[in-house]
Amino acid sequence: MRIIRMALISFAALAIVSTAKADILLEPYLGYTYGQAKIDPVVGSGSTYDMNNLAVGARFGWQFLVAMVGLDYTMPVSGKFKATSTGATDYDYSGSQLWAYAGARLPLIRAWAGYSLTSTTELKDATGTSTITGDGLKVGASFTGFPLIAINAEYIMNNAKKIKSGAAEWDIPGTSYSKATQNFFMLSVSAPLSF
After folding, report:
1. What are the CA-CA distances from residue 188 to residues 50, 82, 107, 108, 176 (Å)?
2. Would you tell me how many other CB atoms lie within 10 Å of the CB of residue 20?
3. pLDDT per residue as tens digits for the range 172-195
4. Residue 12 φ then ψ, to 5°
């Protein structure tokens, strides 16, 4: 994680100093995510979930001749954690992520990588709400050959660092949980606006 974070920072710094001309990018998007989540306790078998939801978000940043850097905010509109392992509970979920990203744009395509600055997932069932916080990485590509819209595909890998449920709180890894991950794809349609 540290090497990737440093590579993103280095790439962003290089992009900024390599050219003085930059366009401001504002890119709202609507997407659909699908993938899998897993929570592994220290003792016993883990719980696995299929996850899917609609998501909205926006990228804000700068586009240079080839390079692009900025921030990306994503928020699920409605989501489900559907249990696929025995004894696990289904959850409704919500949350948000703020990403720093860097990438390149070429004619008709863009590609980028991002590091999650903040990541929060709230899981709700009949017994209450649990909040999971952590970090993540993502890679993405986009086809920009249509007028006014772009078609985007991203692969996102989130790692939990802490789970809080009521007054109880657990670090990950820790005495109760060894690992909690979310790995999923997001397909989206966006409207990239440059100023």
Report:
1. 19, 22, 19, 16, 36
2. 7
3. 989 888 999 999 999 999 999 988
4. -65, -45
